[in-house]
Amino acid sequence: EGIFRIDSGGVLYVNKSLDHETVSSYRLLIRAYSDESNGRRRRATEADDPDYAEILITLQDENDNSPVFSQDKYVTGVTETIGTFASILRVEATDSDSGNFSTIRYSMKQSGEEDFTGNFAIEGLTGVIKAA
After folding, report:
1. pTM above 0.90, yes or no
2. Could you tell me which residues are beta bridge partners of residue 25?
3. Which of 67, 76, 97, 102 would be 89's cystine partner, CB 3.0–4.6 Å?
4. Is-contact 5 28, C-beta < 8 A?
């Protein structure tokens, strides 16, 4: 069964889930016929060519994918004398959504019992972690 189907009344249905990241648009050609009394189909137009209507469907993207980091774990070291706002490390994530839904913003929170977040800062747009 295809992605779309059309019933005898001309109503178009979607048979499967659609995903903008896989296919962002569809072009469908719909062919119209009329039935003769003997059950054979004849073209709806007087011309030799069948009557077609074109349907263009453009999928709007949704924010349906979460960002994914390029690494599961980042490890680095710094000296005790590191200067304030010195860059330490850059983390990176990607999002397979499109447009504004693919924009990545970074933030940092405490992990574990000790709170070291006052010693470090992350740039929200770049993922660069700096000494604070």
Report:
1. no
2. 58
3. 76
4. no
